[in-house]
């Protein structure tokens, strides 16, 4: 059974070998064979296979001079290694090279030849046949070119672990070692090229692009990566298209229509030259010249596109090219090619014919080839061939006399990659040759036998390869089988000598540098399409000016936008900004929104007119209060000052000075210490002021309402107790402020939210509850004071300020009740202004109402600031109180008698008036003044005449002076009881006595006589006694 299988393989092998004639391969024997796959042609002829007969092999068309040069680079490297005495000595490398025709089918056909040869070798058929021409197995393959072709080849070679080292396949898909196990390459992956293309877009500020990709494993992954990169850079794609060299004409025309109608001026292309050529031809035919082409490495230097007749369309192209390498002696090797001297290279004959547009006729085989070439000439050639009949050639022509891409060795990029790929395999074999047992890469450190080396062993050695090439660069494949490399950025220029396309280096892309520093472009060297130096514009929308940002248009890509002005408080200082930058809290955008300027800081300043006015009013209040205090101190022994409880008045005036002064703390830039001081200073000052008024008013009321003086009254009227009460009332406010400052102290605060362009520097009170309690407690004391003042409004008015205190408290309430809504509704610096106005208004109200009347009497009416006036007013008040009490008792008595006698008497109504008679003659030895008080009843009027006698000024004192008051009236049975009720208060310090004399009163009139000794005003002056004597003589008249 095994014999039959071997016999079948021997029958199949010749058939497989006959499929590739000598003219379709380059082959040379050796100890170790390397395979090669190169695109000697750009494609295959389109042929309809109707299967009516046996299908023929597809015919390759359009000769590729660069592909043949790459093949020559492999042969040159192998010859160089064979001639080396240090690399693989005594070992000869052979080769089997096939043409892929830039198609997957031809590449797979050649790959099957490698695999079949290896399988035959694994069968050990030497015992069945004498194979003198037997070629050893292919232990590694160099190729292929396109990523799509390499993908198909890698899938097949990977099944047998035959290493494949590609020199031009850059698709990032091939880095997947799970799928492509035996694939390696000497060209960088497209992962970096797509990023580099996106960086160029970003460098020139282009955000509107068309993407074109070959419909294969090179174009699709490359453009997909490019799209991901541009999206991260906010670059938009108008549309994407896939192309192929086999695309029908209608599809190409539709694609060109879309390009022509698009507003995008940049076209990024991931494709090979053959796939892009049909599209470029149609664009040239339509003369679409206002486009910028961004070329991937596969076509950036393609001879199919870089033609003189295409330059007006593709001129100015920016492309990526591999860094050029140096191959010493390669130029001479290329020039030595000759069909008669290259028996191992079956592609030389076709190369010669295509170069000189001829056919070789020295043999029947050559004639057959010439006929084939004549058929191929009907298809447009990429070389110098032209349609029509070709002349014969001898093979002796000078190759250097014809300019073709074959001899363009100025920038050896792909050729150098081929050179490095061959040397990589050679160094892997060298490592196997020099391997020391025990240090090898295989089981137990074993080494492979170089004479019986297998492909998988070479693959293992390649994965651990590390050597230095002829340019001094380190060559080692990473875990993905890739080599890191750099790109050169080229720009398509026109050669001024012959008009051909030349590639000018304008920059580079270093993949080993950190992000942001990889790209370098010298823009001064770039010549754009149309021979322009200015960078073309390729944006969906025009750049936004400074102070504006991009605004999204619904339904359009993000790169198509409208320019929207930055809102207030934001700015942009660069063109085409995606978003506006928010200004800091202390700044605001200027009018054009191009920068931020510092906000205006506003507070109640000393220098502004409003602040100056408030300061002047506060200073005026301090001056007036100080003036009143000075007057009171100067006239401290006068009756008016004594009667107003001068010690409390001094304290009251001091508190008013503090109130006026506290308003100044609210003016100026708020600081932490001023914020913590101003409210407590205001609150304590006002509480001290109101407490003085409260104690003063309450004491006067108690004095006049007390009918019989007791020791308790005297205790309450003492000076020390008065100050104690003031202290206690003020201490409550001090404690409130202390707790406030400890728990939640006020601090200065910069308010940014109230106004966009202004920072209001205010005080954050910390606790509004504490502030409310501070003002509320002050108002509570004011309310109590108002109550006592209102109750004392009818006391002797010459020295009692109850009415004025009542009015001042009304002003106080009006001011601070109005303050609450004003404080809540006001913002900024006017919050402090409102409080200052409230403080000044209430302080001026207290000062004017309580003290201005007294200052007027002291300074302008000194005649009223006498003891007589004070005593007259006091005595009149005492008479009024006694008269009202008498009338009440008389009314009760009359009602009782009327009920018995059935007689009716009208209820008396009293009215009191006073008149002072100063024209009376003074009795001898003294000065006498008289004050008359009239009380009107329903049936008559009683006039009280008070006469005061004052000792001479040189008398030793007033201690023994007496006051006589006479009252004549009709007495009833209970008159004595009423008179006792009218007893005025005695001052123990004066040692005065009080006596009453009663007279009869007729039915139509009544009189009351009262005699008082030493009617003193001591209760009102608190320790300052006056000791006058007075005589009162009542007069009656009938007014009924």
List the helices and strands and how they pair.
Blueprint: H1 2-18, E1 25-28, E2 32-38, E3 41-44, E4 60-63, H2 65-82, E5 93-99, H3 104-122, E6 138-142, H4 147-159, E7 164-166, E8 183-185, H5 190-203, E9 208-214, H6 219-232, E10 236-243, H7 249-261, E11 266-270, H8 273-286, E12 292-295, H9 311-314, E13 318-322, H10 330-335, H11 348-356, E14 358-360, H12 364-376, E15 391-393, H13 414-433, H14 455-463, E16 467-468, E17 474-475, E18 487-494, E19 501-509, E20 519-521, E21 548-552, E22 561-565, E23 570-571, E24 581-582, E25 587-589, E26 596-598, E27 600-602, H15 609-634, H16 639-643, H17 646-664, H18 672-705, H19 711-716, H20 719-743, E28 747-751, E29 758-764, H21 768-791, H22 802-825, H23 829-860, H24 867-901, E30 911-917, E31 927-936, E32 941-950, E33 964-965, H25 975-981, E34 994-996, E35 1010-1012, H26 1018-1021, E36 1029-1032, E37 1035-1037
Parallel strand pairs: 2-5, 2-6, 6-7, 7-8, 9-10, 9-11, 11-12, 12-13, 14-15, 27-29, 33-36
Antiparallel strand pairs: 1-5, 3-4, 13-18, 16-17, 18-19, 19-20, 21-22, 23-24, 25-26, 28-29, 30-31, 31-32, 32-36, 32-37, 34-35
Helix pairs in contact: 2-13, 3-4, 5-6, 7-8, 11-12, 13-14, 15-17, 15-23, 17-18, 17-23, 18-20, 18-21, 20-21, 21-22, 22-23, 24-25
């Amino acid at each position: 059974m095994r014999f039959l299988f071997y016999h079948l393989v021997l029958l199949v092998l010749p058939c497989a070998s006959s499929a590739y004639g000598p003219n379709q391969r380059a082959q040379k024997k050796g100890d170790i064979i390397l395979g090669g796959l190169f695109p000697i042609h750009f494609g295959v002829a389109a042929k309809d296979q109707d299967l009516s007969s046996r299908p023929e092999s597809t015919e390759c068309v359009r000769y590729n001079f660069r592909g043949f040069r790459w093949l020559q680079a492999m042969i040159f490297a192998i010859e160089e290694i064979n001639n080396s005495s240090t690399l693989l000595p005594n070992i000869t490398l052979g080769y089997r090279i096939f043409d892929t025709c830039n198609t997957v089918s031809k590449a797979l056909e050649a790959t099957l030849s490698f695999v079949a040869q290896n399988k035959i070798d694994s069968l050990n058929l030497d015992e069945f046949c004498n194979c003198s021409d037997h070629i050893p197995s292919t232990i590694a393959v160099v190729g292929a070119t396109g990523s799509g072709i390499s993908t198909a080849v890698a899938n097949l070679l990977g099944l047998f672990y035959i290493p494949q080292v590609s020199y031009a396949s850059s698709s990032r898909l091939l880095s997947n070692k799970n799928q492509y196990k035996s694939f390696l390459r000497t060209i960088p992956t497209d992962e970096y090229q797509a990023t580099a293309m996106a960086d160029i877009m970003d460098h020139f500020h282009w955000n509107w692009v068309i993407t074109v990709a070959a419909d294969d494993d090179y174009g699709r992954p490359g453009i997909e990566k490019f799209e991901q990169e541009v999206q991260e850079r906010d670059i938009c794609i108008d549309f994407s298209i896939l192309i192929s060299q086999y695309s029908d004409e209608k599809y190409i025309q539709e694609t060109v229509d879309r390009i022509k109608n698009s507003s995008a001026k940049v076209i990024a292309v991931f494709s090979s030259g053959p796939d892009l050529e049909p599209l470029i031809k149609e664009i040239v035919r339509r003369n679409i010249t206002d486009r910028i082409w961004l070329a991937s490495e596969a076509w950036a230097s393609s001879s199919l596109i870089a033609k003189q007749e295409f330059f007006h369309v593709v001129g100015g192209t920016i492309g990526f090219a591999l860094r050029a390498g140096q191959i010493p002696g390669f130029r001479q090797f290329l020039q030595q090619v000759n069909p008669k001297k290259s028996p191992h290279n079956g592609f030389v004959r076709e190369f010669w014919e295509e170069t000189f547009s001829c056919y070789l006729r020295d043999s029947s085989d050559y004639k057959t080839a010439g006929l084939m070439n004549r058929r191929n000439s009907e298809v447009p050639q990429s070389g110098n061939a032209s349609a029509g009949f070709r002349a014969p050639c001898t093979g002796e022509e000078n190759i250097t006399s014809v300019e073709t891409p074959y001899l363009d060795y100025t920038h050896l990029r792909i050729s150098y990659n081929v050179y490095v790929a061959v040397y990589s395999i050679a160094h892997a074999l060298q490592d196997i040759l020099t391997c020391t047992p025990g240090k090898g890469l295989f089981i137990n450190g074993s080494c492979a036998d170089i004479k019986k080396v297998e492909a998988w062993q070479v693959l293992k050695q390649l994965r651990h390869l590390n050597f230095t090439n002829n340019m001094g660069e380190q060559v080692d494949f990473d875990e993905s089988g890739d080599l890191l490399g750099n790109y050169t950025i080229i720009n398509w220029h026109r050669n001024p000598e012959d008009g051909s396309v030349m590639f000018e280096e304008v920059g580079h892309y270093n993949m080993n540098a950190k992000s942001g520093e990889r790209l370098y472009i010298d823009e001064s060297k770039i010549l754009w399409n149309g021979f322009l130096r200015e960078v073309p514009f390729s944006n969906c929308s025009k750049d936004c000016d400074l102070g504006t940002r991009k605004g999204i248009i619904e339904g359009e890509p993000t790169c198509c936008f409208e320019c929207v002005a930055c809102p207030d408080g934001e700015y942009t200082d660069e063109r085409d900004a995606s978003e506006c930058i928010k200004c800091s809290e202390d700044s605001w955008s200027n009018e054009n929104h191009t920068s931020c300027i510092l906000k205006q800081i506003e507070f109640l300043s000393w220098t502004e007119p409003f602040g100056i006015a408030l300061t002047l009013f506060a200073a005026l209040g301090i001056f007036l209060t100080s003036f009143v205090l000075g007057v009171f101190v100067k006239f401290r022994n006068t009756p008016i000052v004594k009667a107003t409880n001068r010690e409390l008045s001094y304290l009251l005036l001091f508190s008013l000075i503090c109130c006026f002064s506290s308003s100044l703390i609210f003016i100026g830039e708020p600081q932490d210490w001023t914020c913590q001081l101003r409210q407590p200073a205001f609150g304590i000052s006002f509480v001290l002021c109101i407490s003085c008024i409260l104690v003063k008013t309450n004491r006067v009321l108690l004095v006049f309402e007390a009918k019989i003086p007791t020791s308790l009254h005297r205790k309450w009227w003492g000076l020390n107790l008065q100050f104690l009460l003031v202290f206690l009332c003020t201490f409550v406010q001090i404690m409130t402020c202390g707790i406030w400052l400890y728990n939640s102290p006020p601090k200065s605060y910069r308010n940014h939210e109230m106004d966009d362009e202004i920072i209001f520097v205010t005080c954050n009170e910390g606790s509004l509850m504490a502030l409310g309690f501070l003002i509320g407690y002050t108002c509570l004391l004011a309310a109590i004071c108002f109550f006592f003042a209102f109750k004392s409004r009818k006391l002797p008015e010459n020295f009692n300020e109850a009415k004025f205190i009542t009015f001042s408290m009304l002003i106080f309430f009006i001011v601070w009740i109005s303050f609450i809504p004003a404080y809540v509704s006001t913002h900024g610096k006017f919050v402090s202004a409102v409080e200052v106005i409230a403080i000044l208004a209430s302080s001026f109200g207290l000062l004017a109402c309580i003290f201005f009347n007294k200052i007027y009497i002291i300074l302008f009416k000194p005649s009223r600031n006498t003891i007589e006036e004070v005593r007259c007013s006091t005595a009149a008040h005492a008479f009024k109180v006694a008269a009202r009490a008498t009338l009440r008792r008389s009314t009760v008595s009359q009602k009782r008698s009327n009920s018995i006698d059935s007689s009716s008497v009208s209820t008396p109504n009293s009215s009191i008036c006073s008149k002072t008679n100063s024209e009376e003659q003074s009795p001898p030895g003294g000065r006498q003044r008289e004050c008359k008080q009239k009380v009107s009843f329903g049936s008559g009027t009683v006039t009280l005449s008070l006469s005061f006698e004052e000792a001479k000024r040189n008398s030793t004192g007033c201690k023994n002076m007496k006051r006589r008051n006479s009252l004549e009236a009709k007495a009833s049975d209970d008159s004595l009881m009423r008179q006792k009720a009218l007893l005025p208060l005695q001052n123990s310090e004066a040692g005065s006595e009080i006596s009453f004399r009663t007279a009869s009163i007729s039915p139509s009139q009544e009189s009351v006589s009262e005699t008082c000794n030493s009617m003193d005003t001591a209760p009102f002056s608190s320790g300052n006694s006056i000791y006058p004597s007075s005589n009162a003589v009542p007069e009656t008249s009938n007014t009924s």
